[in-house]
Specification:
- By secondary structure, this protein is of the alpha/beta class.
- The strands form 2 sheets. A 6-stranded parallel β-sheet has the order 3-2-1-4-5-6, sandwiched between helices. It has a 3-stranded mixed β-sheet with strand order 7-8-9.
- Helix 12 packs antiparallel against helix 13.
- The longest helix has 29 residues.
- The protein is globular.
- The N and C termini lie far apart (55 Å).
Length: 302
């Protein structure tokens, strides 16, 4: 992409945000031979990147200064704006001609506004949120939904192919975020249905493991059930994707749907159940903890 590429011919990458998803994703790029410089707010995550062969940076500005590709993976729109704008942000410190790929899940409008602001600095932008959770990030089998120019998508494709299995350009800036919002709607409703089935099956005295196996082999089967079956069976709600973040995403989809005049009756109910989980202190748990909400409603003392 430029004369700052590594000896391998691969573009230099700056990675901002080394959380549950960002750490394994950045490490997969290191394994693929990319020169990755990372920055995050948690020092132990910088140590993890260094141990994997990446280069920790002391600031966003330092991380992005020599990068051909800058990738952000942070929790929500305010964090994207915090790392992109201002004197210490990406737009002020990245080189003209760099490609900024935001893989966070944020509002479509935030992505559109960022692309417009970046264009004035000579920086190209793609919104590229992902689905697949922590396991998908570790295994590099994420689904990546992309918004932006076709030429920028084509340039970024080798990077995407290291991180995911299903990579699709969905349209112009913001389109990736719109599709991600729909993804989160489907996942939330699916999780809720699975949780209700689990409680129903257990109350009926059925072998839960056997029941989930046979259900997952038929029309009721889903990636959600495959990924979260053990969470339900073991009541293991260690976060692969936190309730707090799914709450944020349900706010995005319900707000965007209101803007285009789309009714989401079931989505609205599940959104409120997720909000209820947060209010009861479960926001830091995995979103499969929707099971706890159904158990409470069914009279189980947790």
């Amino acid at each position: 992409m430029s004369d700052t590429t590594t000896n391998s011919g691969l573009p230099r990458i700056a990675w901002i945000g080394l959380g549950i998803m960002g750490s394994p994703m950045s490490e997969n790029l290191v394994k693929a031979g990319y020169d990755v410089t990372g920055y995050t707010l948690e020092p132990e995550k910088l140590d993890r990147l260094a141990a994997a062969g990446g280069t920790p940076a002391r600031s966003v500005a330092e991380a992005v200064r020599d990068a051909d590709v800058v990738i952000t993976m942070v929790p929500a729109s305010p964090q994207v704006e915090a790392v992109c704008y201002g004197p210490d942000g990406i737009l002020e410190n990245a080189r003209s001609g760099a490609l900024l790929i935001d893989m966070s899940s944020i509002t479509p409008q935030t992505s559109v506004d960022l692309a417009r602001a970046a264009a004035g600095r000579g920086i190209r932008v793609l919104d590229a949120p992902v689905s697949g959770g922590e396991a998908g990030a570790v295994e590099a089998v994420l689904s990546i939904m992309v918004g932006g120019e076709q030429s920028d998508f084509d340039a970024a494709r080798p990077v995407f192919d290291v991180l995911g299995r299903t990579v699709v350009r969905c349209g112009p800036h913001g389109a990736g975020q719109t599709v991600k919002a729909a993804n989160q709607l489907i996942v939330a409703v699916n999780l809720q249905a699975c949780a209700e089935a689990v409680v129903f099956l257990e109350r009926s005295g059925v072998d839960l493991s056997a029941a989930l196996d046979v259900l997952n082999g038929g029309l009721a089967g889903s990636t959600v059930l495959t990924r979260k079956k053990d969470n339900f069976l073991n009541r293991d709600f260690a976060p692969g994707f936190r309730i707090d973040l799914h709450h944020k995403d349900m706010g995005i989809v319900t707000d965007a749907a209101r803007g285009v005049g789309a009714a989401l009756p079931v989505g609205a109910v599940v959104s409120q159940l997720i909000a209820s989980l947060r209010a009861q202190g479960d926001g830091g748990l995995d979103h499969s903890a929707l099971l706890r909400s159904v158990e409470r409603l069914s009279g189980t003392r947790l």
